[in-house]
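Hi C.,

You asked whether I'd gotten around to modeling the 390-residue construct. I have! Everything is below, sequence then structure, no commentary in between.
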Amino acid sequence: MIIVLGLAIAIAAGRHRTGHAVIPPSKSAPPAGIQFGANTGVLFNSGAYSPATIDAQLKALAATGVTVARSDAPWEATEPTPPSGNLHHYNWAFDDTIAGDLAANGLTWLPIIDYSAPWARAVPSQDHSAPDPAEYADYAGALAARYGPGGSFWQAHPSLTAHPVETYEIWNEPDNPVFWSPAPNPTAYANLYLSARDAIEAAQPSARVIVGGLTKPATFLPALVSAAPALRHQLDGVAIHPYGGSPQAVLDNVRTARSTLQSLGLGSVPLYVTEFGWTTSPPGSLDYLNARLRPSYIEQTLTLLGHTSCGLADVILYAWMTPERNRHDSQDWFGIHPPTGGGTPDTAAFAAGVHAAASGPTGPTGATGASGATGATGASSATGATGSAC
């Protein structure tokens, strides 16, 4: 692998962490229309797939009509060694592959900026432990300078149709002890978010910087705002992971997140559903669903979310493809598109759901779709003439 040394990104001295920055207000109005997509991290992160396989998978994903792919932008891979003084040495090879492959297939990258570089971890042996917020912010700013509009990556690849990054997700599930070790810390996360947002804004003023996908927004968001009241004016969006046992349960979890924001006086802040989905093996595992039911659940959920008034900006399935190797590992069976390619009832239902969701509130009202299913709670519940209230 060729090592690419990133340019040192000089972030303005008035960054949030100094306490002197004038941080731009939030972009509280939701983007026009909902963007749909799928998580593609496994394709890139595992290192198990050839460029040809990755390209074929992304072509199949784009053919469903989606426009966004969510995938990690791993700080731990991009900056494995600490900076020399103020000079950062970024190896952009991994990130460049993601940005280039997605753009070549007409997809916009939604990067999850994660996890802690080995030299910047609160717990040295744990990459999911809290990072040094100042160093993390430097990486976030450098990422925006490279992949945002007019960024150095696009300048270096003029033959590639640019699909610059528009939205940056700060960490993944910071309210989950699996991803924020040793335990979630609203104060520490608020500092991380504000520091990263300031750095990204300095490089890309138009960027949306969103709270990393929450599993328990009803408890974590109030704690977050209490820990850092300044967040009331600096939230560009909140990502959530509203996993549920049925399409209606997913919608109910979205409604809970919206209600929580409203109770905090943040009703105009857009929500980003950056993960929802079901695994089909093994039975009894978390988020398990019988494979026969999954196509209809996917289509119904997309249709419901596409026609709700919950202020959604993105709806992103977890996941497009997973390895399908170990029947005892639930993470291997969330993917809806086989590693070897080819259509499935899941992918047909996903495409039909994206189409139905994007058709507007006057679209189909319970008509049978590709998966052979009607609305999530009856013939007319999925897409009523005026959409679903939040």
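If it helps when you're writing up: Strands lie at 35-39, 68-74, 108-114, 167-170, 208-214, 238-240, 271-273, 312-317.

Thanks,
B.
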